[in-house]
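Incident log, structure service

09:12 report received: a user says their structure output differs between two submissions of the same chain.
09:20 pulled the input from the user's history:
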Amino acid sequence: MKNAISKKFLFLLILLCTLLFAAAAHAAEYTLDCTADLPAMAQGEKQDGDSETFKDFFTVMYSAKNKIDGSEKNFDDGYYATQRLNFGGKTQPGKDMINSVRFTVNGPAEIKFWWVSGGDGRQFALYDANYNVLQKTEGESVKNSLYISAFQADAAGTYYLGVPDGSNYLFKLV
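09:34 re-ran on a clean worker, output below:
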């Protein structure tokens, strides 16, 4: 009888540990969908240094050149969008990171985003809290082409998704 109880206890303990590990491994996922989450905005409605937080997680670091406008796109993975965040210019570390989106993660995280190139050769970059470029999208982008890209944040911290050169259009950020 004692052996049967020990086996049941061991089974329950393993099951409990498995469930706890699975719950811990499934981190919270935050999504900024420019179609669903951002109100339309004309260029000039915000000024350099203005910011606005969405979904208690993403903070758009505005410039006077930003606008949120209509643009119908159908990405390869089936994501359909009708509105974009138009950066209007490159991210500027010396000006409070205008033209970027700031977020803070509690541990390692994948940052996935759906975007359109504003001009040939333009990229997106992941910046750290000290405004250093950690990663850039790779490949030669083509103006008005659709892309789905991802970066890996290796540790907890504050990060910025921005454009190191020119302007691009963001449709979704996860």
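09:41 both user submissions now match this output. Likely a transient worker issue. Closing.
09:42 reviewer note: The chain is about 15% helix and 40% strand. The radius of gyration is 20 Å.
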